[in-house]
Amino acid sequence: MQGSFSTDSAAPLETLRSAGYSALWHIRKMPERAIRYGIPPQLFGWRWRRREPLFEYVARQPDDRASLEIVRGAYTESYPLPRNMTKGDLSAQGALWGYAIRDVPNYRVSETYIAGLADMRMVFATTPDKGDFFPAMIGPDGQSIEARETSYRPLHAEASASGRCGRRLGRAMWIWERAYHNHSHWLTAHLPKLLLLKNRNEVDGLVLPERRTKVMDHSMRMIGIEPEDYRTFSFDDPLEIDDLRFVGTDRFAPDLVNSVRAAFAGSEEPTRKIFISRRNSRGRKLVNEDELWPVLRLLGFERFLMEDLEFEQQVELMQQTRILVAPHGAGLTNMIFCPAGGHVLEIADPGFPNPNFYALSSALGLNYALLHARAGKADHPLDRDLTVDVASVVRSLRQIA
């Protein structure tokens, strides 16, 4: 099923690697568990706080302190298996993502909701290496109010320990999650929220980050939202918000990702075959791209580096795409603009079985295949370069009518 690269010999190493990640995760959780049992957070330098899930917090508040509107309830979607795999081929490893590849065929779509929360403090942190953004929401009693991709981390300790007062806002509409500037997170987590609020005429009160990418501003303007019309916040200053409206969604909810496709829909018939190259990227480059590309070219493919295209060009290209082949990476998220019924072939490391693109393809009504590649060595899985079996790529493409 997976070409000439057998995964049997890699299974013990994969299991050992997974056990290592699991052990490290439990060790890091020990101080947090101590705080849960009453140890003051300041004894750990505010690196951890007591946590409370948002729904539980709202449930115990009086009506004048918190509210919760369920815009669309949770439910389960049934999705087809990847075209080139059986159920037994699907990885059960999902600790890093909260679900595994084997969970996608019966994918649990979480609620879309808007919570109203009084007297909240938002604090922010960024990673020193990649500059990834992490928001945390602190309640009036000093606990972390936890939601998807909004969680208190040791990174927030400096902002907490300083005790400085933040900028005060009366009312604010909040959509921002971890790594919002990442192309994939922007298209699947944040742009759908903006469209939801726009369709409900509730964009007023939106607060934007000062640091934004060109793609963010361009895509907002394309859906009729002018970034200059809204207040901004800085990573360096906490926010004290009297009336916070917090929007929660599932990144791969079909109604939300399809709203993005509909907002940018083109009218041309999709006929193009596109290969997204990562040859200029830091990690997950195809080591044998020079071997694969001539074969793809003979099969009618065109090769693109997404970073060479303006956002509008990326959208137009995907609207015309019938078959999309790419290594695992943010560029694959552009499938959100591909018309339903197309085909996606993801080349990925089986030792890092990320289910997100399978879930996104399924939600968009695209036919998905997962091609396992041999991974090189690197400290982080996302930095490992890949070698794919060219024959397995050709076999998968020949299954497409």
How does this structure look, described?
The relative contact order is 0.14. By secondary structure, this protein is α/β, with parallel strands linked by helices. The longest helix is centred in the first third of the chain and has 26 residues. It is built from ten helices and 17 strands. Helix 4 packs parallel to helix 5. The chain folds into two domains: about 180 residues, no CATH class; about 130 residues, 3-Layer(aba) Sandwich (Rossmann fold), CATH 3.40.50. A six-stranded mixed beta sheet has the order 13-12-14-15-16-17. Strand 12, helix 7 and strand 13 form a beta-alpha-beta unit.
Identify the overall geometry. Answer: globular
Low-confidence stretches: 1-7
Total count of strands: 17
Distance between the termini: 19 Å
The total number of structural domains is 2
What share of residues is helical?
25-40%
Mean pLDDT over all positions: 91
Adjacency order of strands in the biggest sheet: 13-12-14-15-16-17
Beta-strand content: 15-25%
Which structural category do the helix and sheet elements fall into? Answer: alpha/beta
As a whole number of angstroms, the C-alpha radius of gyration is: 22 Å
State the major sheet.
6 strands, mixed
Helix and strand succession? HEHEEEEEEHEHEHEEHEHEHEEHEEH
Number of continuous helical runs:
10
Domain Glycosyltransferase 61 catalytic: 185-344
Pfam family, one: Glyco_transf_61
Protein name: Glycosyltransferase family 61 protein
Keywords: Glycoprotein, Glycosyltransferase, Transferase
